[in-house]
Amino acid sequence: MAHVIMPGALATIAVFSITFVAIWKFILHRRRPLNYPPAVPGWPVIGNLFQLKEKKPYLTFTKWAEVYGPIYSIRLGTSVMVVLNSAEVAKEALVSKFSSISTRKLSKALTTLTCNKSIVAMSDYGEYHKMVKRYVINSILGPNAQKRYRHHRDAMIENVVNILSSKIKEEYCSLVELREPFQSELFHLALKQSLGKDVESVYVEELGVTFTKKEIFQILVVDPMMGAIEVDWRDFFPYLRWVPNKRMEMKIQQMAMRKRAVTKALIEEQKKRFSHGESLSCYLEYLLSEESNLTEEQLIALVWESIIESSDTTLVTTEWAMYELAKNPKCQDRLFQEIEEICRSEKLTEEHLQLLPYLNAVFHETLRIHSPVPIIPPRHVHEDTQLGGYHIPAGTDITVNLYACNMDKKDWEKPEEWNPERFLSDKYEQMDMHKTMNFGAGKRVCAGSLQAMLISCSAIGRLIQEFQWKLKDGEEENIDTVQLTTHKRYPMKAYITPRNQAA
Ligand code: HEM
Fold first, then answer.
1. Phi/psi of residue 258, each to 5°?
2. Band of the pLDDT at 6, cuts 50, 70, 90?
3. Which amino acid residue places its CA nearest to atom 15 of ligand 1?
4. Residue-level pLDDT at 5
5. Which of 34, 168, 207, 291 could bond 391 through an S-S bridge, CB–CB 3.0 to 4.6 Å?
6. Ligand 1 atom at minimal distance to the Cα of residue 313
7. What is the pLDDT of residues 10-66, one digit of tens each?
């Protein structure tokens, strides 16, 4: 009999327990309802997608922060994204809550372009990421590695100065654009550091075409930067993945295929040199020695990453800094005086940088106001967590709006003004790279900040030491930006006068 009654009794206890737990949870929730971040009102189904039509979402995010506060949520089709707009809450996400927010959320375009998250910057945190970050730091970007590439940086900066000098002599015109020579010299440096050699052209067997250096730059740097901001509406509606979007797919696949083919051809050429016993001391040589841990696709993706990352944000920062200095003669004079006092008749070099606090302040203030990476690529929350006192459930995407952190009135007085003097206060350590959040924070902090600072500060210093800069009339208003990083839409045009001729 007992074995007949027992199942009934067990069932009663089970039902009772489940009901009890359900009631208890209900009471708990009623007492302490989960506190979600405020939501920006949007449309049914599409959420806030229409409000983000233009390709500068950081500006819209910043406007919303004025209404909804430093942390709020938006809906992009089926996914919920929490946007962080203050340094305090950004640090909480990037540093203290990192273990709950460590994976990357990439668009389909970025997944294709990064060869399924094979590059350091877009890989998910884990063994692969730790390994390849160690590779890039040990071989090119860490302090010791940077010493080995010093001669490339010195040569690059002197070349830019010489090109500008010759240009104004030969053309009897002092109006110049810094972009062209700087971009091309920076690309030489990126190739030398990544492949050991600069190249004038490359024959790509897969495509049966020889590409010039300009075309290589277009394929490896410009096209992927544009592709990275392409939006495939199916990213926001995964249940509609089956609907074809051929034009978009073809465009991104073409881009990815061409950049892969060109990088592969460049690698093959260098491999031949290595096999003839030539040692080129570069990232590729280092990666080949570690090849057993990498697939061919990963190797190609990593070499491409080092080329594109070296070629872009440093140019963006340096051009904006020169724009600001050319626009603000008082700041330019102050910087020139500082350089004169420290360098006297010597050419400014990297050794002088730690003795030049105003130059350092110009660099950080330019990063603050022109945020080269205005939005950190989104992360995915994989377990429930808390941010800024709000509950953030697993499955949410997170993005950090660095532009808004840099414009936050709580942290910065008159944030819209370019004012390097703000970084001269005792609050800041001169050589601290993280006066702003521009290089990120925590375990995914930028690996190339030292290189960016060394090139940008030495270049700004040398360009001011050598020439007096004055913006062309009408240039003040040219502040529009394009691309993923905040490139100046129109290259800066300025008049330069060699210092030895300046009044
Ligand atoms: C002014 C110039 C630069 C700025 C503002 C900048 C900014 C950033 C930011 C915001 C991140 C993302 C951090 C995160 O996800 O939390 C990042 C990551 C990264 N950056 Fe930079 N960057 C600059 C220059 C460079 C250069 C010159 C290189 C290499 C040549 C480089 C290599 C990397 C790498 C490899 C990562 C990935 C780090 C990781 O995921 O662990 N960056 N950078």
1. -65, -40
2. very low
3. 444
4. 40
5. 34
6. 2
7. 455 555 555 555 555 555 555 556 899 999 999 999 999 999 877 789 999 999 999
- CA distances for 322 relative to 166, 332, 493, angstroms: 19, 9, 10
Strand pairing of 175-177 and 493-498?
A: antiparallel
| CATH code of the domain occupying 120-498 | 1.10.630.10
| pLDDT 10s digits, 302-348 | 999 999 999 999 999 999 999 999 999 999 999 999 999 999 999 99
Q: Give per-residue pLDDT as tens, 168-186.
A: 988 777 999 999 999 999 9
Q: How far apart are CA 66 and CA 189, in angstroms?
A: 42
Does the C-beta of 484 come closer than 6 Å to ligand 1?
no
What's residue 1's pLDDT?
37
Burial of 277 (0-12, 13-18, 19+ CB in 10 A): exposed
The annotation status of 115 as a binding-site residue, yes or no, is no
Mutating to test ligand 1, I would choose from 364, 446, 451, 457 the residue with most ligand atoms within 8 A of its C-beta, which is: 446
Kindly give the number of the ligand 1 atom that is closest to the alpha carbon of 379: 15
Question: 310 in ligand 1 pocket by Cβ < 6 Å?
Answer: yes
**C-alpha torsion angle, residues 10, 11, 15, 20 (rounded to 10):** 0
CB of 121 sitting under 6 A from ligand 1 = yes
Asked if residue 87 has its Cβ within 6 Å of ligand 1, the reply is: no
106 alpha carbon to ligand 1 midpoint, in Å? Answer: 16
